[in-house]
TrEMBL record:
Protein name (Swiss-Prot/TrEMBL): Membrane protein insertase YidC
One biological process term in Gene Ontology: protein insertion into membrane
Keywords: Cell membrane, Chaperone, Membrane, Protein transport, Transmembrane, Transmembrane helix, Transport
Coiled-coil parts of chain: none
Highest rank taxon of the organism: Bacteria
One GO cellular component term noted in the UniProt record for this chain: plasma membrane
């Protein structure tokens, strides 16, 4: 396999892969929104705004839902009813600002204070923080929880809670902030919903204490759910801006994990086709997007029922993933409790791994995680030393080139020898003309005589290709590289080079490498023309890639060019010395 064909194969694979992703995103099949709410367990009647889920035995009519048949499970409503107005409670720590609606005690907004929407600049030193949970209709995303009972009152995520104040802030010097919301029923049942936040943490602890002051036993279930809409497509000023936006290619949808079922994803267009209904112990349910994730994590060892649903609210479809806990029984005059954790924050590998088993899998490297995970680990270690992700990428290039030095040296040594053989190769071509079989046979004999390995040029490329795709996913999905500056004009290594300097430098590097490479004997004229345009083709391809990936290939290209020049110069000197001896 010669160097030319390898370059052509690499370009074809890269172009085909990214064109396919863009086509799939824009023109792939998208099922129509269902006319009614649906779930894995049962479809609700057309007039219902609820979804049936397995809970305690018996029958009940939950407010806002149609009554189930005798013996059926109670239903959890998904759309708020028209009731008395509620209050919004703001809870702030050093990294999170949450907004809780007393209607249901649900978290309807979360602002990640360390992650601005746009990079900080002199003109805009304090940009707005990213909202993960959001109550606005076009970007609706809420973390809801509640209790349901088949035979008694229970506060679901539409019940009206009471809060002592409308604003809570983590005080300086304190590490924990506790916020209580209270619901009471005329029967004597009282539920205290307690949110506990910790300094520097994106984990919110939820505890629900059930005080049964009624005259009969209370039986019910706790549930937690994430409900969101598919956000509208972003507006791009031009085609280049659209293609350069890497979030366009990332996974957006639901995910869940358990030791039994492992990690699974469900895109929004698959909710109606592949509904989830499964029992899981020690797992979690989540909604994923590029860089950030929201997830409910039940108590360790608890067996929950995971399910998904599509719910229509007006003309909008909301996608829901839910976890329903085991039955809770509280005798009259006794207390019961249930707990879970909510994560609303960035996809930081160490943080996710320490939060729950399998949670780090929400960093979606896909099939290439075997390459992406170690690459990210090395980059993270280098960043701790340098404090700059761009410098870390450069050091990664140097480490890879050091590890593959012998392979690339053999490649360039083979190329240098082939340059010296060009007159003899031209003579063979003139002698055998169009007899390709004899030409190939004579060429292989000449290679064998001169100890040239034509396959030597393929091995470095076989290493480069998986690194290319693995690093692409690292740069696209690693939140640490989001808005990470390098130097000069590059303010975000995860975005395209705004002035296309790096792609042009890489194209120039490729052009010089071509001049140092021997022309492949017997190359098809079409291939020869393609080879001449390769620098231009790669420059165009790299216009759309993250600047960090372009930086990797520019530095890698310069390293290879320097090594190629040195090897070529050495063989030229050896040849000159042999002729004068």
């Amino acid at each position: 396999m010669n160097q030319t064909r390898t370059f052509l194969l690499f370009a074809l694979l890269a172009v085909a892969y990214f064109l396919f992703m863009a086509w799939e995103k824009d023109y792939g099949p998208h099922p129509p929104a269902p006319a009614v709410a649906s779930s894995a367990s049962a479809a609700a009647p057309a007039s219902s705004d609820s979804v049936s889920v397995p809970t305690a035995s018996g029958s009940a009519a939950v407010p806002g839902a149609t009554s189930p048949a005798p013996g059926a499970a109670p239903a959890i409503a998904n759309a708020p009813a028209k009731v008395a107005p509620s209050q919004q409670v703001t809870i702030s720590t050093d990294v999170l600002r949450l907004t809780v609606d007393t209607r249901g005690g649900s978290i309807v907004r979360s602002e990640l204070l360390d992650y601005p929407v746009t990079p900080r600049t002199k003109k805009n030193p304090d940009p707005a923080p990213i909202r993960l949970l959001d109550e606005t209709p076009s970007h609706y995303f809420a973390a809801q929880d509640g209790l349901v009972s088949a035979d008694g009152p229970a506060p679901d995520h539409r019940a009206l809670f009471q809060a002592a104040q409308t604003s809570y802030t983590l005080a300086p010097g304190k590490d924990v902030l506790v916020v209580d919301l209270t619901w009471t029923d005329p029967s004597g049942l009282k539920v205290v919903k307690r949110y506990t936040l910790h300094r520097g943490s994106y984990v919110v602890d939820l505890d629900q204490q059930i005080d049964n002051g009624s005259a009969k036993a209370w039986n019910g279930n706790a549930y937690r759910q994430l409900q969101r809409v598919e956000p509208p497509a972003p507006h791009y000023s031009n085609f280049l801006a659209r293609i350069s936006d890497q979030s366009h290619y990332g996974f957006f949808g639901a995910a869940w994990y358990s030791p039994e079922h492992k990690f699974n994803k469900l895109a929004f267009d698959k909710f109606a086709k592949e509904p989830l209904h499964a029992s899981a112990t020690g797992g979690w349910v989540a909604m994923m997007q590029q860089y950030f994730v929201g997830a409910w994590i039940p108590k360790a060892g608890e067996t929950d029922t995971f399910s998904t649903a599509v719910v229509n609210v007006g003309n909008t479809s909301r996608y829901l993933i839910r976890s329903v806990g085991p039955q809770i029984s509280v005798a009259p005059g006794k207390q019961g409790d249930t707990s879970a954790r909510l994560y609303v924050g960035p996809k930081l590998p160490d943080v996710l791994g320490a939060t729950a088993p399998g949670f780090q899998l929400t960093i979606d490297y896909g099939m290439l995680k075997i390459f992406a995970v170690p690459l990210h680990w090395v980059l993270a270690k280098l960043d701790k030393l340098t404090g700059n992700w761009g410098v870390s990428i450069i050091l990664l290039v140097l480490l890879i080139n050091l590890a593959t030095y012998k392979l690339t040296n053999a490649q360039y040594a083979s190329a240098a020898k082939m340059r010296k053989l060009k007159p003899r190769m031209d003579a063979l071509k003139e002698r055998y003309g169009d007899d390709k079989q004899k030409m190939q046979q004579a060429t292989m004999e000449l290679y064998k005589k001169e100890k040239i390995n034509p396959v030597a040029g393929c091995l470095p490329m076989l290493i480069t290709i998986p690194i290319f795709y693995g690093l692409y996913y690292v740069l696209r999905d690693s939140v640490e590289l989001r808005q990470a500056p390098f130097f000069g004009w590059i303010h975000d290594l995860s975005a395209a080079d705004p002035y296309f300097v790096l792609p042009i430098i890489y194209a120039a590097t490729m052009l010089i490498q071509q001049l140092l490479m021997p022309a492949a004997t017997g190359m098809d004229p079409t291939q020869a023309k393609m080879m001449k345009f390769m620098p231009v083709i790669f420059a165009v391809i790299f216009l759309f890639f993250p600047a960090g990936l372009c930086l990797y290939y520019v530095v890698n290209g310069l390293c290879r060019l320097g090594q190629q020049w040195w090897v070529t110069k050495r063989y030229d000197a050896m040849d000159t010395k042999a002729k004068t001896a």
